[in-house]
Specification:
By secondary structure, the chain is an alpha+beta fold. It contains four helices and ten strands; from the N terminus they run E-H-E-E-E-E-E-E-E-H-H-H-E-E. It folds into two domains: about 110 residues, no CATH class; about 35 residues, no CATH class. It is about 15% helix and about 35% strand. The protein binds zinc ion (ZN) (2 copies).
């Protein structure tokens, strides 16, 4: 969890490898309705230069979530970059460290949160659930009238349901528009 950078401080510029596992709290994923499946692996190197520790690593994490469209459970592994600086006195875009010990947990959590997609899907072309009967359209079809689901958002649907009265049906009074019965 904690990284001792004493050797790095004594050899500025030299890179030191590390490979650690972190049990992160699911709370950080709460707003995303997701949870960690395994400990998060962080693998890379760090070096010391001018009172600053530079960390370059890959964060490998697996989360479980429900697809935003079809609500199926999904397990997915992500691999993201961690490139952060750790400094002794507060600075923008850097994390603090004390003595020769770095605790990268906050940096790891921040990078994971930023990497999460806004829309979490089981697949990019997930068809979702039928809005009428709730059938998972990835797995089967249903007989619901898809026009009904389209209608409220589609003003042209209303135009298609209109026809000119009077001209074709021989009526003498119907000259305006009338609505066709469905
Ligand atoms: Zn889905
Ligand atoms: Zn349906």
């Amino acid at each position: 969890m904690l990284i001792d950078v004493l050797q790095a401080r004594l050899s500025p510029g030299k890179r030191f490898e590390f490979d650690e596992f972190y049990n992160l709290n699911n709370d950080i994923l709460d707003i995303h309705n997701a949870k960690f499946v395994n400990p998060v692996e962080v693998k890379g190197n760090y070096y010391f230069n001018n009172k600053t520790v530079f960390v370059n690593a890959k964060i490998i994490y697996t989360i479980e979530f429900l697809c935003d469209r079809c609500a199926e459970k999904v397990n997915r592994t992500y691999k993201i970059d961690l490139c952060e600086r750790f400094v002794k006195t507060q600075e923008d875009d850097a994390y603090l460290y004390d003595k020769d010990i770095i605790n990268p947990q906050k940096a790891i959590e921040d990078n994971i949160i930023l990497s999460l997609p806004i829309e979490k899907l089981c697949s990019p072309d997930c068809k979702g659930l039928c809005k009428i009967c709730g059938t998972n359209l990835n797995k089967s079809k249903c007989d619901c009238d898809s026009e009904i689901t389209v209608k409220p958002d589609n003003p042209f649907q209303i135009l298609q349901n209109l026809e000119l009265g009077g001209a074709n049906n021989g009526s003498t009074k119907g000259k305006g528009l009338k609505i066709k019965k469905r």
